[in-house]
Amino acid sequence: MSLINGTTATAEDPDSKSKPITPWELRTEFSHHDPTIARINNGSFGCCPASIMAAQQRYQLLFLRQPDYFYFHTLKPSILRTRLLIQTLINADNVDEVSIVDNATTAAAIVLQHTTWSFFSSLFQAGDAVLILHYAYGAVKKSVQAYISRAGGHVIEVHLPFPVKSSSEIVSEFRKALQMGKANGRKIRLAVIDHITSMPSVIIPVKELVRMCRDEGVDRIFIDGAHAIGNVEIDVKDIGADFYTSNLHKWMFCPPAVAFLYCKMCDDLSDLHHPVVSHEYGNGLAIESSWTGTRDYSPQLVLPEVMEFLSRFDGGIEGIMRRNHETVVEMAQMLVEAWGTELGAPPEMCSSMAMVGMPVCLGVTSGSDALKLRKHLRECFKVEVPIYYRALVEGEIDPITGYARISHQVYNVVEDYYRLRDAVNKLVKDGFTCALLYK
C-alpha cells in the first residue's frame, strides 16, 4: 500500500477499483497538489492521481530490483499493452501504427526528420513547402525551423483570426494559405495542423482541413494533438491524416512524460526512425521507440491502471471530457459576465480549456506584460493561470489584448475560478495596470 500525505492511495485496494469514486477519494487522489493554489492550468503540465503515481513507483522498483529481468521480460510486453490500449482509444487499424514516445515534441521531430531526409535525398526540391499554423506550439515551430528551413524547405504560416467566431473563419484562412503555398508551381510536402492550439486555445476543424489538403495534393499531413487525448474524441481513421500525436500526461492522467505517435500504415513511411539511435535501430519505429537507452520508462507502462481509474467515473473518459467541457464553458461565461469582456472562441470550439478576455484597463500590451501579470496573480493571489497577449490590429479602438486560458479537470472546484474572478476585480478596483510591474 502507498501512503501519500498520510492517506492510502485508494486504487490499490482491489475492492475499490470497480466502485464509483467518491468525493473524498477524489480529493485523496490529488492531495499532493498545493492546497494554497487555485490551479486552473491543467493544460500546461496535466495531473497525475496518487494511485497512478503508486503504480509508477511499482514499475520503478521492479526495474531497480532486477534490471536485467525487467528489460528482457517486463518492459516490451508492458509497452505493447499500452500500445494496444491506445490503438483502441484512437481507432487505429493496427497496433504497429502506434509508437510510444516521450512527448509530442519528440513525435514532431520524428516526422520532421523524415521530411528533411526527403529534401537531402532530392526527393523533395529546395523551395518545396511545409505549412504550419501561426498558433502552432512554439517548440514545434522551432523544430520546423531547425529541420525544414535548414534543409532548404520553405515554411508557410497560416495566420488564423483570434478571437474566432466560427470554424469557417479558420477554414477560409487555411484555404488561402494553401493557394499561396502552391503559387509558382511550388509543392506543399507536409502540413502540420494542431487539433487544439495551445495559446490561444481553440479546437481546429482538423477533419475538414485534412480533406482540403488531400484535395490540393499535399503529400503528408501531421496532426499535433498534444492536448487532445482525454480532452476531445480522436478517431484517426475518420480524421484521415498520415501522422497523429498526443500527450497522455496532459489530459489522460499519466505521469510525465508519455505520448503516442500514430503513423498510418504505408510502404514509403517504413523509413521513419526515432531521433535517438539505439541498438533497436532498423526494427521499426515502434520497437526503436521502446528502447532509447537506459531511462525511466514507467510513465509509458501505467495506462492500464489509468484506464481502471477512469472506469470509476460516470461515463469513463467520455463522461470526464463532457463534464470538463461543460464546466469550463460555464466558468468562462461567469468570468466574462464579471469582467464585461468576451470569450476568445464560441463554446463549441472550446475543449476543457477556454480563452477569457481580461479587462482592457489592465493594460496588457505585450507578451512580457502577460508573463508578468501571470506571475503577479500567482504570487499575490495564489492563482495559476496562463495569460495570452493578442497583438493589436490596425484601426482597433480599446481592444481586449489580454486573455486568460482557464482549464478544468476533475480536481477543480468552483472556488478556483471565483478566486481568479475576485483577484482581477480587485486589480481593476485598485487601478492596477501592467505598467506598474516595471517600476
Automatic annotation (TrEMBL):
PANTHER family named in the record: HERCYNYLCYSTEINE SULFOXIDE LYASE, L-CYSTEINE DESULFHYDRASE
The keyword Transcription belongs to this UniProt entry's keyword annotation: no
Aminotransferase class V domain: residues covered: 81-265
Pfam families, alphabetized: Aminotran_5
InterPro entries in UniProt: Aminotrans_V_dom, PyrdxlP-dep_Trfase, PyrdxlP-dep_Trfase_major
Biased composition (Polar residues): 1-10
Lineage of the organism: Eukaryota, Viridiplantae, Streptophyta, Embryophyta, Tracheophyta
Gene3D superfamilies in UniProt: Type I PLP-dependent aspartate aminotransferase-like (Major domain)
Organism superkingdom: Eukaryota
Region (Disordered), start-end ranges: 1-21
Protein name: L-cysteine desulfhydrase, chloroplastic
Assigned keywords, A-Z: Pyridoxal phosphate
Organism: Sesamum alatum
